Amino acid sequence: MNFPFQLQRGREFDVVGFGTNAVDFLIRVPAYPAFNSKVELTDYIQAAGGEIATSMVSLQRLGLKTCYVGRFGDDASGDFGIQTLRDEGVDVSLSEQITGATTQIAFILIDVSNGERTVIWKRDSKLAFRPDEAPVNLMAGTSAVHITPHDTQACIVLAREAKKHGTILSMDLDNLFDGIEELLPMMDITITSADLPKRLFGIDNKRDSLKAMRGKYGASIVGITLGEDGSMLLCGDEFIETPGFAVPNGCKDTTGAGDSFRAGLLYGLIKGRSVSESARMANAVAALKCRDIGARTALPTYAELQALLAA
Questions:
Q1: Residues 6+ positions from 55 with CB-CB distance below 8 Å
Q2: Considering the domain 13-310 in this protein, what is its CATH number?
Q3: Which has the closest alpha carbon to 258: 231, 219, 297?
């Protein structure tokens, strides 16, 4: 099945990202600590992350033209975070560092035994975008825009402008925000965490919850990520269930796996692949990301992606 919408080609960017960035402190522990206990960590690192920033790096490494619009603090973490995007070749000309703001950070506990993680994060309110600050001028110059709805009203303004120019709208949704009911119907692609549709509709069955989501909000493609089990998408009336890939040499860290899945799906869209082919690519990108610690450390190149798909 092909993607059920027309992609506008020949624009300055393949994908523009608008949403979160972060600097992560990743702490590996032998096992997730029990309440009121002490545990010696195995090791830790500082690395760049954040949902949308990570997705743009993933797409850039695969060979697409990307732009990231977001805000950082004017602290050392902000210097580090924005420079990591520049180093990857992501256009950050419309990103900025806000005087007196603290860059979003996350402390991430990683269970060494299985690579699963727990995220503890904080975003400074000074980093938020008002509706009149949405980067609407970019919408005529990109084939797709990928967002997180933390600044929901700004995203609504951006989505309205994107619709005027035939720009595909993709959302990474893992939590509920004020105003999301107005934003969701404008999306072409909405990929959520596995539990989000149930939280919206109270339906346990995954297929039924995705049907309810598409029926209410009307996105052409809705879907959920399922960790090592892969993914489930609903396109039209067809469910596309795609198994996950085994992580080469074992899973070290799942941080950013969902972000890389979304990037892989958008990569398939931009490259003119079918929905099922794109979902397979997305699962492969997510598996390869899990080879090392950090949201972006092991994001694959095009050659690495092709090698896993061929194998």
A1: 17, 146, 172, 259, 260, 262, 263, 266
A2: 3.40.1190.20
A3: 231
